[in-house]
Specification:
- The structure is a single chain.
- A six-stranded parallel beta sheet has the order 6-5-4-7-8-9, sandwiched between helices.
- 54% of the residues lie in helices and 11% in strands.
- It folds into two domains: 156 residues, Beta Polymerase, domain 2, CATH 3.30.460; 154 residues, 3-Layer(aba) Sandwich (Rossmann fold).
- The chain starts with a strand and ends in a 14-residue tail after the last helix.
- 41% of the residues are buried.
- It is built from 16 helices and nine strands.
- The longest helix has 54 residues.
- The radius of gyration is 30 Å and the shape is elongated.
- By secondary structure, it is an alpha/beta fold.
- Helix 6 packs antiparallel against helix 7, helix 7 runs antiparallel to helix 14 and helix 8 packs across helix 9.
Length: 427
């Protein structure tokens, strides 16, 4: 079950991000069929990965019901409030989804690296709480491997940083001296840190930061810049020559005409407002800036749509390349899982055939098979008889059809192997 910026309001995601750490333990206590649980909770995402001891056709429904009940018990959010705010993935789709999440493909800012650490910490937390399971361990470890491969072989990890650099390169034509610019940064997330570093590379020194979520002071202290309080935001915005927004903490635009046209009082000497010229760069997703600012006299707006038109081809192809890596990794994960799930059935089949063979060999010895030729022939025959079904079982598993082999085994031989929960039972 996943709730993200694609399905839920930021207000709901904020409530879910404050979900207590005992959601996963409660999940295991609410339903005996839940064998393991790992919860990933960030400011933009809430995801519960659970292993359910139920057929894959029922795993999704059973899992969602357990997750909703656990959230209501621990966070006080009724199930009806979450209706329409989440999606459910089950079976073979789970691996591809988690691998994409860990790689930053599903983030507000595609390619951001913070989510990879959050996914790893979620697994560590589950280990500490004793809620993980062997299959969930395998799933999350492979997610980290997929993320590293995406980072190493595609440009996705550089895409976000490149957009920042590209936006400032496009601003170069309007800015003669970066050290003279009065810069206001709106936002304190991963994009903001990259933006700040890039601004300093270009020579900007007069930089302030405002945070709609109230994190400006902490960010400013960490990076040695000036924090802008809420009641001073409009005044500073109206006096800044370069404004860069890069926050996902608000559903509505955080910068509009009312901020840029705010009463400023006496304009200090050298203030850009004396030249009536401002550049606004909107790096937010969703849009941080009200498009109406572009109609203000002396204000130019540069948004992501415009910036991406100038992006190098490599950056435009980064997402497609990353998706291919993720799909390949997920396919491999599922094939390995399916092979593991069919292994007990193969072992049961071979054990059954070999036990019949041993019984016949004992009878042959009792009848006087002194030279062992009968035993040799029977062992050869048993090998021949088990070879093709074994190969076929693994082929079916690779196609996600291991259940067909298990069903045939039960129908023909009456063998019901102990099959452990596999990736197809994760929701």
């Amino acid at each position: 079950m996943t709730a993200s910026h694609k399905t839920a309001s930021f207000e709901m995601l904020e409530r879910l991000s404050r979900t207590p750490d005992d959601v996963a333990p409660n999940l295991l206590g609410l339903a005996s069929c839940v064998q393991g649980a790992v919860v990933v909770a960030t400011c933009n995402r809430f995801e519960a990965y659970i292993e359910v001891d139920e057929p894959v056709t029922a795993a999704g429904a059973v899992g969602v019901e357990a997750v909703l009940e656990a959230i209501e018990q621990t966070a006080g959010i009724p199930a009806e409030e979450l209706e329409g705010a989440y999606e459910v993935h089950s079976g073979r789709h789970v691996a591809e989804h988690l691998f994409a999440v860990a790689s930053g493909l599903e983030s507000v800012v595609p390619g951001e690296g913070e989510i990879a650490g959050q996914v790893r910490r979620a697994l560590k937390s589950a280990r500490k709480e004793g809620t993980t399971s062997p299959e969930l361990e395998r799933l999350f470890q492979r997610a980290s491997q997929a993320q590293r491969k995406v980072k190493n072989v595609t440009a996705l990890g550089r895409a976000g940083r490149s957009l920042v650099r590209l936006s400032l390169e496009l601003a170069d034509s309007r800015i003669a001296d970066w050290s003279a610019e009065k810069v206001l940064l709106v936002g304190t997330g991963a994009y903001a840190a990259v933006t700040l570093a890039t601004l300093r590379e270009r020579g900007a020194v007069d930089i302030s930061v405002y945070s709609p979520s109230g994190r400006a002071a902490v960010f400013a202290e960490k990076h040695d810049i000036t924090a802008v309080p809420e009641d001073d935001y409009a005044r500073i915005a109206s006096r800044s020559s370069l404004l860069i927004t890069c926050t996902n903490a608000a559903e509505e635009p955080v910068l509009g005409p009312q901020h840029l046209q705010a009463p400023t009082g006496p304009v200090p000497a050298g203030c850009p407002m004396g030249q009536n010229s401002q550049l606004v760069i909107d790096l937010g997703m969703p849009r941080n800036v009200d498009p109406a600012v572009a109609s203000l006299e002396g204000v130019a707006l540069l948004d992501l749509e415009t910036i991406r038109l100038h992006a190098p081809l490599e950056e435009l192809q980064a997402t497609d390349a990353a998706r291919s890596v993720v799909r390949e990794a997920a396919d491999t994960f599922n094939v390995v899982g399916d092979r593991q799930s069919v292994t007990p059935a193969v072992v049961a089949f071979r054990t059954h055939i070999l036990s019949l063979m041993e019984a016949e060999i004992d009878r042959a010895r009792a009848r006087g098979d002194e030279d062992g030729r009968v035993e040799q022939a029977m062992r050869h025959l048993a090998g021949v008889l088990t070879h093709t079904p074994t190969v076929r079982a693994h082929e079916l598993a690779a196609d996600g059809r291991s259940a067909e082999f298990i069903s045939a085994l039960e129908t023909i031989y009456g063998i019901t192997p102990e099959v452990p929960a596999a990736a197809s039972d994760i929701a």
